[in-house]
Amino acid sequence: MMARLVLRDVDVQHGRTRILFGVSASIAAGQIVGLIGPNGAGKSTLLNAIAGQLSAKGKILWSGKPVDARDIGFMPQHCQVRAELSVLEVILLGRHEQLGWRIADDTVNAASRILAFFEISDLAARSMQTLSGGQQQLVLLAQRLLREPQLLLLDEATSALDVRHQMHVLKLLKDYVARTGALVLVAVHDLNLAARHCETVMLLNGGRLVAHGAFQKVITPDILRSVYGIEAEFIPSQSGTPVILPLSPTSVEANPMEKSP
Ligand SMILES: Nc1ncnc2c1ncn2[C@@H]1O[C@H](COP(=O)(O)OP(=O)(O)OP(=O)(O)O)[C@@H](O)[C@H]1O
């Protein structure tokens, strides 16, 4: 039976402030799911709760059991390596549970392969400290994939990448999902990227799950107005997925940033 992530009435509170309000969803593995919503909607909070990085009320189940850290790969929003480590060392740390006195040949080979997949083999000996923001992001993504997690949680993990690298990484993720049947849950601001690469999207607003389904059903001109506070044009494209062209912000009242329903 295919694995499934089940969220049941997930509530998160910081101090006295409630951040997530009863988020419930049942998400089948074998797809890339986009977590979308305006700033402050609760995307990072939900990913952190699923990753077990903060306490939440309700149930978060992967294949019917509480999420086990060994099943997941999690890339938080602000992720940096401060230590003086080479790119290869950082990649190998993706399998730190398996590293012993001797690093097995297949681990080194897997690390070399993942560097090649991400087209960063030439960076292997470089110190992480000398890399650009986008290069660091590629290395950290490659590190997460090395251990082949069944549940991959990515918080704006392609935000520092140029367009070509973004497309390349999303193609890698698509191939990874097809090969392993994993579930990739990715918080993303770029709606056109979500439209093209995510099988389904979950729209959060004010800490609540507003909609969950195929992008074209979830994202409509009305939703862009009421949730994002923008007027936008939907331009038909050859791919069959319309391109969203933001035109103007609606009035301040209609912009619900940080507004709790
Ligand atoms: N430690 C904290 N203490 C209090 N409030 C917090 C804390 N962390 C986050 N929040 C609040 O929780 C809400 C949701 O934040 P979160 O980072 O999950 O949103 P987001 O959808 O990921 O936003 P963005 O797109 O801007 O990254 C925001 O209103 C934020 O101010």
Helix content estimate? 25-40%
CATH topology: Rossmann fold
- Mean pLDDT score: 90
Q: Give every kind of bound small molecule, once each.
A: adenosine-5'-triphosphate
Structural notes for this entry:
- The protein has 261 residues and is of the alpha/beta class.
- The chain has a single domain, classed as P-loop containing nucleotide triphosphate hydrolases (Rossmann fold), CATH 3.40.50.
- It has helices at 43-50, 87-92, 105-117, 133-146, 163-180, 191-197, 215-218, 221-228; strands at 4-14, 17-28, 31-36, 57-62, 65-66, 72-75, 151-155, 183-187, 200-205, 208-213, 230-235, 243-249.
- Strand 7 (151-155), helix 5 and strand 8 (183-187) form a beta-alpha-beta unit.
- The two termini are 37 Å apart.
- The model has no long low-confidence stretch (mean pLDDT 90).
- The structure holds adenosine-5'-triphosphate.
- Adenosine-5'-triphosphate binds at residues 14, 17, 19, 37, 39-45, 77, 258.
- Residues 5-231 form the ABC transporter domain.
- InterPro entries: AAA+_ATPase, ABC_transporter-like_ATP-bd, P-loop_NTPase.
- Keywords: ATP-binding, Nucleotide-binding.
- This is Iron complex transport system ATP-binding protein.
